[in-house]
Write a structure and sequence with these properties.
The chain is mainly alpha-helical and 128 residues long. It is 76% helix and 8% strand. The protein has helices at 2-23, 41-88, 94-101, 103-121; strands spanning 27-31, 36-40. It has a two-stranded antiparallel ribbon with strand order 1-2. A hairpin with a 4-residue loop joins strand 1 and strand 2. The relative contact order is 0.04.
Length: 128
């Protein structure tokens, strides 16, 4: 829908420019820095409009090219990050989780066994 409105606005602008150019058919003197020429005003108006359209169109094409290049670069970066994320994922097994969860009771029983061994050796409980 946006493109349709842009096309309609462009056509209206072209129509108004054409009408304005046709009304002004007198010759004018144009200074080109190195020479002075007399040109019909209709040609000057249409020529300037054409040059302006070429400049705006060129900028639009350049901007579109730059955005497409950045879009491609970002898609490659996303694919690279997804691939690295998949390779870094470590499968979790329930055996590992059980050993982690039961780690604290083993630690307590190990301290208890150490204190019993130290009592047998004649050391105070709590010292190793």
């Amino acid at each position: 829908m946006k493109m349709q409105w842009a096309l309609i606005a462009g056509l209206v602008f072209a129509l108004l420019t054409g009408i304005f150019a046709v009304i002004n058919v007198d010759s004018v003197q144009v200074n080109l820095l190195f020479n002075t020429v007399r040109v019909p005003l209709i040609l000057l108006i249409l020529g300037c409009t054409l040059i302006g359209g070429i400049i705006v169109g060129s900028y639009g094409i350049y901007r579109q090219y730059r955005l497409q290049r950045e879009n491609k670069r970002l898609h490659l970066r996303v694919a690279e990050l997804e691939a690295s994320a998949v390779s870094e994922v470590v499968p979790v097994s329930y055996d590992n989780m059980n050993s982690v969860g039961s780690n604290e009771p083993e630690h307590d029983s190990q301290l208890h066994n150490d204190s019993i061994q130290s009592q047998h050796k004649g050391n105070n409980p709590g010292t190793l």
